Structure formats: C-alpha cells, structure tokens
Amino acid sequence: MEQYLTWQKFRLPLALLILLLTVESRAGDGDQQSGSGTGGRTVFLAQKCNMCHSVQSAGIEATTKSKKMKGPDLTGIISRRETDWIAKYIRKEVQLDGRDHKKEFKGSEKELAAVISWLGEQTPESTGK
Ligand code: HEC
User: Fold this and answer.
1) Closest to 40 (Cα-Cα) out of 90, 1, 95, 98
2) CB burial readout 40-53, b (16+ within 10 A) else e
3) Cα distance between residue 23 and residue 3, in whole Å
4) Which of 50, 46, 51 is nearest to 107 (CA)?
5) Domains observed in the chain
6) Measured between alpha carbons, how far apart are the two ends of the chain, in Å?
C-alpha cells in the first residue's frame, strides 16, 4: 500500500516530464517538416556551412572565430539572390565580385536542392523555424 501511494504521488510529475521531453526533442527536429527527405538544415550543418555562416532565423551561429573566414548571415538570402545563382556559386561555377566562394559544396544534387530550399525559408519573419 505504502508503495502504491508513493507511485501515485509521482505519476503526474513524471507524465509531465515525459511530455516535456517529447515536445523538446520534436522541436529540435524542425527539419523534417521542410519536405524533401534530406532536411536542408541537416545538410547545412553536415556540410559545415555553419562554420562560416550564421542563420539567425534558424538560431544557427557561425562557429569560426576567424573574422577573415566568416561569411554573411544567410537569413533572407533569398531576397538578395536567385536560387540558381546560389547553387552555382556554392558549386564554384560562378564567382562573386571575381572571387570564388570559400568552400565548394560537395554534397549530392538532392542535398544541394534541399539546403537551398531550406535557405529560401529563412527570412527575418520565419524566426524560430
Ligand atoms: C570557409 C568559410 C565558408 C564556408 C564553410 C561556407 N561559406 Fe558561404 N561564404 C563565405 C564567405 C566569406 C562569403 C562571402 C564571400 C564574398 O562576399 O566574396 C560567402 C558567401 C556565401 C553566399 C552568398 C551570400 C551573399 O550575401 O551573397 C551564400 C549563398 C553562401 N555563402 C552559402 C554557403 C553554403 C550553403 C555553405 C555550405 C555548403 C557555405 N556557404 C559554406 C564563407 C563560407
């Protein structure tokens, strides 16, 4: 009986904790919602774009400490650049002001499409997604 009562006392907090953890892990997974199997956010991080680029709308900070390496924040990039141009630029097929992009994108075409479509969703208004 004693044991049963103790369990009753902890049942609600425990249920809440489990609920919280579930919600938490789902939030970190926001990626899966942006369609196309391979999530663009995952590709972005896997290709280490976040070494040099922050994406504020997605809560991503550039990890490099070097000012020389750091690129611009890519939030709202879609309002400045065509998707085709971005694809070619990060494949080093076109240049910007006579300079190649610092890093060549080595992923597949599918990953390239995913990362660009995800970038397209990163606007100042989309903060938190
Ligand atoms: C080694 C650092 C580095 C890495 C890694 C890197 N970039 Fe960049 N990127 C830069 C720099 C620096 C610039 C700005 C170049 C310039 O202005 O000449 C830039 C520019 C860009 C631009 C154009 C920005 C604009 O405002 O026109 C895009 C788009 C971009 N990068 C996407 C990516 C993506 C996607 C990845 C991952 C596949 C990536 N970058 C990885 C350094 C990096």
Assistant:
1) 90
2) bbbbbbebebbbbb
3) 30
4) 46
5) 34-126 (1.10.760.10)
6) 48
pTM beyond cutoff 0.85: no
Q: Say if ligand 1 is within 6 A of residue 71 CB.
A: yes
Per this entry, what is the length of the chain? 129
Query: What gap in Å lies between CA 73 and CA 60, rounded to an integer?
Result: 9
pLDDT tens, residue order, the chain (129 aa): 566 667 677 777 767 666 666 655 555 444 444 444 569 999 999 999 999 999 999 999 999 999 999 999 999 999 999 999 999 999 999 999 999 999 999 999 999 999 999 999 999 988 755
Which residue, among 97, 119, 98, has the nearest Cα to 43 in the 3D structure?
Answer: 119
Q: Cα-flanking dihedrals φ and ψ of residue 97, to 5°? A: 50, 40
Helices and strands counted in the chain (H then E): 4, 0
Identify whether the C-beta of residue 109 lies closer than 8 Å to the C-beta of residue 40. no
**Residue 103 DSSP label:** S
Ligand 1 atom nearest to 64, measured from its CA: 2
The alpha carbon of 72 and the centre of ligand 1 are apart by a number of angstroms equal to 7
